[in-house]
Specification:
This protein is α+β, with helices and mostly antiparallel strands. The protein contains 16 helices and 17 strands. It binds adenosine-5'-diphosphate and magnesium ion (MG).
Length: about 500
């Protein structure tokens, strides 16, 4: 496999009143598993269904109901682990995390505290050409989501919707390896991208299918390196956790605010209190939600309703064989074998569908030219219409056809753009359109010469100027192109103009 090499970006530094501070960030990302049924029941996970229509007895916490593990959810967690180059644990177990929530009727959440299904992986987070942060993954465990309480539909009552109760989540826990607000957002973006490639989470943040608890602390320059060396957390500052963030922008704003808040506290001679905070979007501040609870507060114990989860290596190997080419490998291949810039490769690999489209266009053609057309013309045009590649009216074969016409010299780059617009709006075979609409480039020297002569005779003053300043020859080229409706071959026009002007 091809690999790109990166150097580590600098951590974000905030200047306090009493010296510099660095940020240390660790994320717990909750990703909703892409499956049709819930983690322990057969109820549907369909988003936007009538409230309380997707609720099995077990989700409603009815007496005597027993959870039954959904193999599909387990497979998705394993698949995600493999995509993050993580260790897959053939033996894992479910625990009860006891707490009361009106939207979690069981009175506890089934999770995996002691023996998660996945541990020790990594994510490469690109921060610009040649720059990337390697973020270690501590674990991924499977757990149930809670439902939704609705407090603003009635002045006197609260409502509850249990459709989401029991839906499978993967909690992906990073090590505190993220060193700034932009890196945190980029990390979430990279996880999202990988899971979308894998098909294990749709990454829809608006629907709450991907949300993050953001842990932030600050330390003095040098302390983080001491932590890395020893893995001793005492070198790091006390962290606060900002709960339930589901927007990249707010994640960054919350981290920035929280870091500055902590710096002010420490520089004031006080201590940061470890706690759970909420980000108030309207005020742009974090505020205390509750003091940090420890694992023992939840009185975790192995769920007696569920046997330990044992999976087989051959089953894991089968999942591994079915993995698609992932973003890092694809991007490296686009850079190292096709010769694209890292930036273009990143744009084209953002989504698997975009990359597949590009590859279909590039097949048997100049890769860089294909990349330019896909990124600048096609993506630009789609964006204008608010469309994505899945509803793109131009097929790879049609775009490839346009590129072929340029390569053969049948049309100029400028005409190609007009042709693209026609194909985009009206469809059709590019080569045929060029013939029927007379768009073919004029390469007939005689015709071009006539046009050049005409412009020269009509503009004696310009001729004198150009003779004194050869740079002005471009003006003649432009005039000839205009006169020929953009169809003259620009290289030939340039040559002829220079010859006639004696430049
Ligand atoms: P909990 O589950 O109680 O929140 P964990 O030990 O699982 O605690 O850690 C949660 C997250 O906090 C992890 O992502 C970890 O990387 C991060 N974290 C731990 N210590 C720090 C720190 N000093 N600064 C920033 N993040 C931290
Ligand atoms: Mg936590």
């Amino acid at each position: 496999m091809l690999d790109l090499t990166y150097s580590a970006p600098k951590p974000k530094v905030i200047a306090g009143a009493k010296g510099d501070w660095e940020l240390v960030i660790g994320l717990e990302v909750h990703a909703q598993v892409a499956t049709n049924a819930k983690l322990f029941s057969g109820a549907s996970t369909l988003f936007g269904a009538e409230p309380n229509s997707n609720v099995a007895f077990v989700d409603a916490g009815m007496p005597g109901m027993l959870p039954v593990i959904n193999e599909g959810c387990v497979a998705q967690a394993v698949r995600t682990g493999l995509g993050l180059k993580a260790q897959i644990n053939l033996w894992s177990a479910f625990d009860r995390k006891n707490y009361f929530y009106p939207d979690l009727p069981q009175g506890y959440q089934i999770s995996q505290l002691y023996h998660p299904i996945v541990s020790e992986g990594e994510v490469i987070v690109e921060m610009g050409p040649g720059m990337a942060r390697r973020v270690r993954i501590e674990r991924i465990h499977l757990e149930q989501d809670a439902g939704k309480s609705i407090h603003d539909m009635d002045p006197a009552m609260s409502f509850v919707d249990l459709n989401r109760t029991g839906v499978a989540l993967m909690e992906i826990v990073s090590r505190p390896d993220i060193r700034g607000p932009e890196e945190a957002a980029a990390y979430v973006g990279k996880l999202r991208q990988i899971m979308r490639y894998l098909g294990t989470c749709d990454g829809n943040m608006q629907n709450g299918n991907l949300r993050a608890d953001v842990n932030v602390s600050v330390c003095r320059p040098g302390d983080y390196e001491r932590y890395q060396e020893s893995q001793d957390f005492s070198h790091l500052g006390t962290r606060c956790e900002i709960k339930n963030m589901n927007s990249m922008r707010f994640i960054q704003m919350a981290i920035e605010y929280e870091a500055r808040r902590q710096i002010a506290i420490i520089e004031d001679g006080a201590k940061v209190v470890q706690e759970t905070r909420l980000y108030d979007v309207d005020k742009g501040e974090t505020r205390s939600m509750r003091s940090k609870e420890e694992a023992h507060d939840y009185r975790y114990f192995p769920d007696p309703d569920l046997l330990p989860l044992e999976i087989e290596q051959v089953w894991v190997d089968g999942i591994k064989e079915s993995l698609p080419e992932l973003p890092d490998a694809k991007k490296a291949r686009f850079v190292l074998s096709i010769g694209l810039s890292e930036y273009d490769a990143s744009v084209l690999t953002a989504e698997a569908e975009d990359a597949a489209y590009f590859e279909a266009v590039a097949e048997g053609r100049d890769g860089k030219m294909a990349a330019n057309w896909v990124i600048n013309e096609l993506f630009g045009r789609l964006k204008k219409d608010g469309k994505g590649i899945s509803d793109c009216p131009v097929s790879p074969a049609q775009l490839g056809g346009i590129i072929d016409l340029i390569a053969k010299g049948d049309i100029s780059g400028k005409i190609a753009k007009d042709l693209f617009e026609i194909v985009y709006c009206e469809g059709g075979d590019p080569a045929q359109i060029v013939e029927t609409r007379g768009m073919r480039q004029v390469t007939d020297t005689g015709a071009i010469e006539t046009a050049v002569n005409q412009i020269i005779t009509d503009n004696p003053a310009q001729v004198e100027k150009a003779k004194a300043n050869p740079k002005l020859a471009g003006w003649f080229v432009g005039q000839v192109m205009k006169a020929t409706g953009g169809k003259a071959n620009p290289a030939m026009v340039d040559e002829l103009v220079k010859a006639k002007l004696g430049l």
